[in-house]
Amino acid sequence: MRVKDVKKVVLAYSGGLDTSVILRWLQVTYRCEVVTFTADLGQGEELAPARAKAEMFGVKEIFVDDLRETFVRDFVFPMFRANALYEGQYLLGTSIARPLIAQRQIEIAEEVGADAVAHGATGKGNDQVRFELSYYSLKPDIKIIAPWREWDLTSRTKLMEFAAENQIPIARDKRGEAPFSVDANLLHSSSEGKILEDPAVEADEIVYQRTISPEDAPDKATVISVDFEHGDARAIDGVKLSPAALLTRLNELGKANGIGRLDLVENRFVGMKNRGVYETPGGTILLAAHRAIETITLDREAAHLKDELMPRYATLIYNGFWFSPERRMLQALIDESQKSVSGRVRLKLYKGNVSCIGRESPNSLYSMKVVTFEEDQGAYDQFDAQGFIKLNALRLRLGASAGRRGGAL
Q: Which of 33, 96, 222, 332 could anchor a disulfide with 8, C-beta 3.0 to 4.6 Å?
């Protein structure tokens, strides 16, 4: 059902065909003032055309914000402290970008006095959920317009006809069926739909944009070091970098070595399965490095607890609950665990693989005196293991004895 009394709406606007049609559709359907917001999250596209298109439609308030540093510092890095992977594989590149876009949209709505926000997510995907849960968390009384759930432009042909009728420029390659859709930011790119819909068919090489094929990667390994402070990466090869600059550099290294490709069939929050091809070159390296530094700085039970909680944390982000109280609670626990996670990791990058070849930390819990196979000078009394084993075996021995007597397992 359409909200009839909208006066001003902030639209998440990319400048592409779909959001350009949405912009004009909002003006025609709601007869309201539209404010456009375009976020630079490192997608690698020129954003000036988006501003020019908005001006062409008579938009008076146009926001084009560079959010790359905010994105990595306040969203990507906190997520990587948790080693978050959805369904054991997906590094959540699209999922983690949505709450930031929504947050800035709400901020702009309050700045300009808008009473509504709008997005271009379809009614089949996860993004509509992620955007709208974030909107409601930040501004409970906000009005939300989701054109794909309202309009009758239900086919590519109708979309093109509306664009032609309203003099919306259509890029030459947009006049035919796109081979697949792409979403990108500084963390990753995702491709889905059309030629990728059959999960039995291997993705064509044209799908990959951020990585070279592992087969084409150099025959010589690249060795790098990554320095961490309190769980966040701070430097590469000893050179301190800002969060966005650091991820950009890792992306370059990953791309050159064919690292970060993933062909995944995932379970969407809305219920269907979806096939996506993801490229996360820098994130794949960062995850390997972070897990490596944690191996020597985290207590065993703390590390295991983090691993137990990680799937829940990842699912919250995937489903759009970044601003939920439970995600904040988990984040507080995760951040507490990272106080000692500082040090340096050395990695070898080779033909799609990331291998840790060294790790060191001033907070290391690894003791060579304890683990050595040489004379340990009393650091560990091996005789103590006998009592330890017997105590842990007690319930097993009792159970086995009862079993022989016909008792329960």
A: 33
The string of pLDDT tens digits covering residues 153-164 is 987 788 889 999
Confidence of residue 407 (pLDDT cuts 50, 70, 90): low
For 262-288, what is the mean pLDDT? Answer: 96
- Tell me, yes or no, if 18 is annotated catalytic: yes
Active site residue 98: yes
3-state SS class at 298: coil
- Can you tell me the mean pLDDT for 292-302? 98
Helices 300-319/325-337 angle, 10° precision = 150
Which is catalytic among the residues 24, 81, 98, 275?
98
* Cα–Cα distance, 61 to 222 (Å, whole number): 47
Tell which residue, 106, 101, 46, has the closest CA to residue 71: 101
| Structural domains present in the chain | 8-72+94-176 (3.40.50.620), 182-298+341-360 (3.90.1260.10)
Which entry of 149, 175, 181, 204 is annotated as an active-site residue?
181
Burial string for 138-173 (b: 16+ CB within 10 Å, else e) reads bbeebbbbbbbeebebeeeeebbebbeeeebeeeee
Answer whether 0.85 is exceeded by the pTM: yes
pLDDT at 1: 40
Residue 344: enclosing H or E segment and its boundaries?
Answer: strand 343-350
User: Is 127 tagged catalytic?
Assistant: yes
